[in-house]
Specification:
This protein is an all-alpha fold and 85 residues long. Helix 1 packs across helix 2.
Length: 85
């Protein structure tokens, strides 16, 4: 699909041309990639938020597991009659 833009501010075009040139890209390719990034930005943000929630849940579960493991170690030491130093 093609898009044609008119009346773009020359300063804005220069701001586009600079990073395109730095990356060895044409203006068209640079704008195409930027447009596609913009189109899927909200989906990416939503995915990142879901991932952060999963990571936070995993961290909390790992904390709980560490507490249970420590309690089990304490029980084992007590049952063996070990004296903590």
């Amino acid at each position: 699909m093609d898009i044609f833009l008119r009346n773009i501010d020359p300063v804005a075009m220069q701001k586009v041309d600079e990073p395109a040139k730095e990356n060895g890209m044409s203006r068209q390719l640079f704008l195409k990639e930027q447009f596609e990034v913009l189109a899927f930005f909200d989906e990416q943000v939503a995915r990142e938020k879901r991932l952060e929630i999963i990571i936070d849940q995993n961290i909390e579960l790992m904390k709980q597991c560490a507490i249970v493991i420590q309690n089990m170690n304490n029980i084992l030491h007590e049952s063996r009659g070990d004296v903590e130093e």
